[in-house]
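dumping the sequnces here before i forget
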Amino acid sequence: MPLGHYLVLSGLLFAIGTAGVFLRRNLITLLLSVEIMLNAVNLAFVAFGRVQGTVDGQIITFFVMTVAAAEAAVGLALVIALFRHRESLNPEAFTSLKW
Amino acid sequence: MLALIPLLPFGGFLVNAFLGKRLPKSVSGGLATLMMVLSFAIALMQVLALAGMPAESRQINQTLFTWLTAGDFSLDLALRLDALSAVMILVVTGIGSLIHLYSTSYMHEETDAEFARFFSYLNLFCFFMLMLVLGANFLVMFVGWEGVGLCSYLLIGYYYEKKSASDAANKAFIVNRVGDFAFILGTLLTVVTFNSLDFNTIAMAVKAMPEEAAFGTLSLITLLLFIGATGKSAQIPLYVWLPDAMEGPTPVSALIHAATMVTAGVYMIGRNAMLFEHAPMTLHIVAIIGAATALFAGTIGLVQNDIKRVLAYSTVSQLGYMFLAMGVGAYGAGIFHLYTHAFFKACLFLGSGAVIHALHGEQDIRNMGGLKKYIPVTYWTFVIASVAIAGVPLLSGFFSKDEILFETFLEGHQVLWGIGILTSLLTATYMFRLVHLTFHGEERFHGAPAGAETAAAGAHHAAHGHDAHAHDTHHDHGHGHGKPHDAPWPMAAALIVLAVGSIVAGYVNIPHALGGHAGLHEWLTPVFNVTNCGEVSTTGELAGMMLEPCTPVEERNPEEHAGLELTLMLVSSLIAIAGIGLATYLWLKHREIPARLAAQYPGVHRLLLNKYYVDEVYDATIVQPIKVVSTEGLWRGFDVKVVDGAVNGAGYLVSGFSIVLRLLQNGSVKTYAASIFAGAVAVLAYYLWR
Amino acid sequence: MATDALLFYSFAAVTVIGSLMVVTQKNPVYSVLSLIASFFGLAGLYVVLEAPFVAVAQIIIYAGAIMVLFLFTVMLLNAPREDAAEWDRSHPLYRPMAVRIGAALAVLLALELGWALSRATDLGGAVNAVENPTISSVTLLGEVLFTRYMFAFEVTSILIIAAMVGAVVLARKREE
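..and the predicted 3d for all of it:
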């Protein structure tokens, strides 16, 4: 398979994730969209690594996954705290950070 | 060693300025006077050393440090003592010391702090004046020039709580500034033309240049410098500050406005004699303005009623003589008159101070009279000085004034000579009017036994500005308000020394025609060294515009014009005696005549009394328009609308922006996320495009 | 090769469709489950790319741990369905400006990437052009990880501790 195909797929996934971030009204689903974006990036790394014939691509994915996990954990903790405060998961409910 | 001469008074200034409040008057006054005396002693030693040197190289130089360098131009803070500055420093330190001594007694009614303040200013003034005359280049001279202007302001406005005094100080400083502006321009032009400001360098360079027949660079430079001199030395058109400067204490008038500061302009021309000699058009202007000022001021002095104002106009008039001398090329004569004038004018001013002191603040001569028997020392010194200024033979004023008139006549300026003679007549007349009205005749002063306390006199007494010497607190000196008492010993000592000087000072320069050696003249000639005078430039089309070539002074055969000189001397002596006689007739014998003349020609009288309304003209044509432009144009128009508008506008702009920008922070996280994303897309696009 | 292409396209299809469903489903539980499906697709792609370790890690960590965490949270919060009325009432085109712009930007990004890719020249070569049998070896992976990337490895452990502590602190019930 040509490398280009993989990259197109990666880009497509990234775009879908971004659209999800903007279009969803549920904090949890928003985080899920972020996960999609991270995975898209992972795919690109592995593809590149394969092209070059090294394992570096996979190692980077390793780290990305770790970070994603940490981020998901903390993000969800935040969502829980926010939910307790406002009883809503709509990001538009939290607008006090303004002038 | 040379630097000590100005630095000693500067030291006195520092002590009195910072510690004066806590020192008793005897210490602060004594210290200041001591500094001046020491300075005089050192000056004398240096001058004697100078005299021992051969005439061609008679200079003592002292360079303190290199002040500035710019490219290939460099300037040092350098002092130079030569024949001309020798005369000046002796005058400044000598007469300065006497006036300091006088002031210790005259100012003794002031508080300790004010007393010290006076002496600190006086010392500072002497420091600057000495820097002015000792300077080896234009810039050091200018430092002194400006400094004496500053001290003049401080001292005229010494009684700063009195509005007229502070106004007079402002006027002096501002009018001086106008002159100084021209002086600066002249200096700049000098730098451009000669690439140096050192006097010797410039003189050497000018010597090689031809005399300018038309109005060229040299004429412009000298004209600008001369305008500066008119400001500092009170000639037309910038003399208007000097009469008002009489608001200052009398010793100030004596020192600054008679003997030293106002002579700075004359000195400056003497110092640059070479330069002026090569610009005959400017010299012409100098001579004409000098003569005109002399006559002009003389006519005004004839009708003034304040004792110090008469002397002020007399000073302006005598300065006119000095400039006349410079203008006809007789630089030595001008300096000679400067030197003798210092003696008798200082004596006259200090004498007037003694009179004012004796009468507890009265300055109007209409309220004086018959003081001769009460204050004999003051009287006799005053009379001696008046005789000297009138030009009676054998006193100093005769020799100096006569030399000026002789040179003027000899150089072919008979009209100017005529003006000079007329002014001589006026001088003798107004001086003796002053003497008669002040010391002779019936006693019209406050508390006089003849009881001249009429309502009119009382009103005069109150209306005229007194010397604040006897201010609102009319306290007496422990004696009754009755008889005027003579000057205390410091004042009397100064008066006597100066009177003696007025008699003998002229003997250093007895002209050859009377069998003398013209000592001062020969002493000064190497400085002026105008040997190029006889050459004239002969480039074709300018030939018709040449002025008469002047005869180099040292080449003139002393015997040649002896006859002419003696004749002219006789004429001026007769004129002087005629003037004294006229004054005696009008103001001693037949007092009613002047009043009748004033009534017959009220217009003329008023014109003279109001000084030809010059101040009013200046006010209307210069001061008021400037005020209007400043208020309406610059203040309301520019400052408020443009400058404030810009600043406020910047403020409004920022606040306008922020009102708009604040909408970005709408609290919606999605918006923030969107903007982050937009940024990322933009950056990516940029990289992709590259 | 044909098998390669077939595998690629099938797994790719799974991934993309899964992602699309994540973004469009109203019920958050359905979103999570679609994402899990999407991850399986990705794992398959990794295997095709001769990265078996990554594929297995994907399943275990992502699909196994992270998604389960998400599910737990969804259940805990009893996340309501996005209100149908709310959703319908505001037609997508009536969304606030930022959202519209965001969506537009996403499209723009996709186009941008597409354009960039079309300009790139050496993407035609097959992905597995370089014959390297060791690339799929876990041993090799371990060696490189623990030698060259040792420091990053250690730092990651700190990151995980920070995340743990953070999560505990943030989600703690406040004692009133």
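Chain C touches chain A through 88 residues (CB under 8 Å).
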